[in-house]
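Q: Can I borrow your eye for a moment on a structure tokenisation matter? Would you mind producing a protein record, from residues through to fold? Write it directly below this note and I will take it from there.
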Amino acid sequence: MHELYRIGKDGATIYVRCPHASCCTTTWADPTHKRFFVKHSFLHFRGDSNEVYGFKTNILVDKIRLHYYLYEGVRHGVKLQRMPLWINSAINKIANFSSLTQDIFERIFVYWVGGFEEVYYELKIKK
């Protein structure tokens, strides 16, 4: 993050897609995943967090989206059962309706709906 901040110009956008910590099939079952992310993972790189964590960056989180179900097919030798598309779409829309619903889904409802496969961020460099 320090290097992205150093080489990025003011107002540059950084797009990040990474596994969400709540999904055991994409996060914990894949041995190539080294870090797992949640909604607030990038908040620590803001300028006002520098005193606490010692980062020398000012990267603002512009957008966060939780993605419930990415694709169908075979994963780790197991055929995925595709749920009806409307269920996936409904969960994504409700979960991403606001920051509050993202928090509620991330903390409570992930245990009922099975976890989010991915979290997507748009970050802005502020110099």
